[in-house]
Structures are given as C-alpha cells and as structure tokens.
Write a structure and sequence with these properties.
Blueprint lengths: L2 H15 L26 H12 L2 E9 L2 E2 L1 H8 L16 E8 L2 H17 L3 E2 L4 E4 L14 H28 L1
Parallel strand pairs: 1-3, 3-4, 3-5
Antiparallel strand pairs: 1-2
Length: 178
C-alpha cells in the first residue's frame, strides 16, 4: 500500500472514530477513463465515483507528490466533480475536504498540498484549516499508526476530526435552512 493511502487510512480512522461513515476510493478504484468534456458517457466505475462524491458531506483526499505536483490520477478523478455542476450542491460545494500530500522531500510535499487546496477552492470545497504534508523520505509515515511519527499521526487525526466536525456543522446549517 502506498504511503499516501496509509496516511489516508489513518486520517479516516480518526474520522470514523469521530462518528463518520467512511467509504474508501483508493488505488485502482481511481483508475478512471480520462475526463472527456465532449461526452456524457461514463463507465460504471466513474458513475460510482461521482455518486460517492454526491453523497459525501466530507472528503479526505490524499495524493503522492510527483514531479512537483499531485498525482494525475487524483486530478483526473477530481475532474469528474464537473458532473455535479447542476446539483443542489454543485462540485464540492458545502463539503469539508481534508488534504494530505506525501512526497520525497518537503518542497514537493508542501507544494502538492498547496495545489490540492487551490483545486478544492476552485471546486467550491472547504479545505480544513489543517492540511498534512508528509516528507516520506524522512520516514515519517509508517505502515501503521504504531510506526508513524507521533506528530504526523496527531496531524492526521486532527485533520480527520476537522472534516467530521465541519461536515456536521454544515449539515446542521442545511437542515436549519430547510
């Protein structure tokens, strides 16, 4: 399992412990056809992905940093948020979004996190105050919580909890308005 997925699972565990229902779309589940603006046809996997986005009140996105940016596979998946453009909550509107970047070096880890934030803002999502950049070359992310740097684990847990708290607050506000 890739370091970014291990980090995602640690953050998701904190979200689950805080009361969230967690669904994972990782690795091969994100190998979707290239987003094509000229067709509305979608593969079953793409439809499942878009429906998962539609249902979500909170999302945690983790990406490795490749060549100074986030994964093309993650970018392609996020492009399918365009299919939500006519929804009551278009794109990632009104959704809490936790962000994790994992790279071999701080420059790419932080740059990747910043780029993820920009994309989430463009999609009208609400990035959590805490985003987690992890320098994998420093050995900060382990195979599990016990072998992960304690400070990184605290950040992942705090960010997972922030996603749940914000999602709950936004859901309450929507109910109040209705």
């Amino acid at each position: 399992m890739a370091a970014s997925e291990r980090a995602l699972r640690m953050a998701a565990q904190a979200a689950s412990d805080a009361g969230a229902q967690v669904e994972f779309l990782t690795g091969r589940a994100l190998i979707l056809p290239i987003y094509d603006t000229e067709t509305a046809e979608r593969s079953p996997e793409t439809k499942d992905f878009v429906e998962a986005l539609r249902r979500a009140d909170g999302i945690i996105i983790a990406s490795p940093g490749y060549h100074g940016s986030f994964s093309g596979m993650v970018k392609n998946a996020l492009d399918f948020a365009e299919d939500l453009r006519h929804d009551d909550r278009p794109y990632l509107d009104d959704r809490a979004v936790g962000l994790i970047s994992v790279a071999h070096g701080w420059q790419t880890a932080v740059g990747t996190l910043n780029q993820l934030r920009q994309v989430v803002h463009a999609l009208r999502g609400w990035p959590t105050p805490l985003g987690v950049a992890i320098n994998d070359s420093a050995g900060l992310i382990g195979n599990d919580a016990e072998t992960t740097d304690a400070a990184v684990l605290r950040q992942l847990h705090a960010m997972g909890e922030q996603v749940v708290a914000f999602a709950a607050a936004r859901a309450a506000a929507r109910t109040e308005r209705a």
